[in-house]
Amino acid sequence: MKTTMANIQNPASQAQQPGQGVFAAVKAKIFHPATRQKLLAFASLLALLVFFSFASPNFLEIDNLVGILQSTAVNGVLAIACTFVIITAGIDLSVGTLMTFCAVMAGVFLTYWGMPLYVGVIAAIVFGALCGWISGVLVAKLKIPPFIATLGMMMLLKGLSLVISGTKPIYFNDTEGFSAISQDSLIGSLIPALPIPNAVLILFLVAIAAGIVLNKTIFGRYTFALGSNEEALRLSGVNVDFWKVAVYTVGGAICGIAGLLIASRLNSAQPALGQGYELDAIAAVVIGGTSLSGGTGTILGTIIGAFIMSVLINGLRMMSVAQEWQTVVTGVIIILAVYMDILRRRRQ
């Protein structure tokens, strides 16, 4: 009875409870470690944009911004592929040379064999998925550590690209519509003030699809579970090897898309290109909040990380910083990103 009377006498406190509950939920969401990491990454991106806009008067020119978007599209798609693998507590060092290999295979189908455009597109994605499947089998079935397995695939694919192409670029000059994949602007044709390349549109479509797969499907749940506690997942009766191979296969298919984007951008398949792209992709993933220990990560964070890497590299070039120092900066960023990941894990 006392409780009832107290509630009657203090109706204001009752009215505040729902609002307080919503505020508490929002506060918990904002201060969640994953959310804090994304906010910190986004703030870092804004800070870089402001700094380079003052440091270089040409940084905000339309052509330069379009160039940033183009480079982010390729690195962002590769980073999405890496995100799937890293969430499982794995690593894929072959994404850069796999991208190049898929571009070369597209060149074989389109330029050497004269196949229709859609056949070349499908071939690039299928060969990417096949190579990803091989990496997955090496890791899941043969129990080779991911670092060693994908390092071997990186060298193997680099060699195959050079052998198949005869160490020469394969040009797509006679393939109608190929350059439009990356360089044209569907959005620009509708809104002339926004000449956003198709490559960026493809990046966001891939990101949306990847986000849905990770958060709304059984594939995504098992991907996170593999990184959180693989043994517990195995004891629950799940075919761990099958899902691990599937993750690497999906990552490989996404690398095939990246291969199409960079080949379309250059209007050629450059067989010597690719090695080194994996470092930028992995850095983007870690900067975006995906843990190298597995079990956590978001596609949104990865996209923000990809933009940070592209803006940083482009800004350093605009400031005429030597290429070797750009590499030094990239290495420092990777080390700092991994250290921040270690600190986050300790706090949790």
From TrEMBL:
Sample GO molecular function, one term: transmembrane transporter activity
Highest taxon of source: Bacteria
Ribosomal protein as UniProt keyword: no
Listed transmembrane segments: 39-57, 77-110, 117-140, 146-165, 186-214, 245-263, 284-313, 325-343
Membrane topology: Multi-pass membrane protein
UniProt keyword annotations, A-Z: Cell membrane, Hydrolase, Membrane, Transmembrane, Transmembrane helix
Source organism phylogeny: Bacteria, Pseudomonadati, Pseudomonadota, Betaproteobacteria, Burkholderiales
Root EC class: hydrolase
Localization of this protein: Cell membrane
Cellular component GO terms held in the UniProt record: plasma membrane
Thylakoid found in the keyword field: no
Gene responsible for this protein: rbsC
EC number: 3.6.3.17
Main location: membrane
Database matches in InterPro entries: ABC_transp_permease
Protein name: Putative fucose ABC transporter, permease component
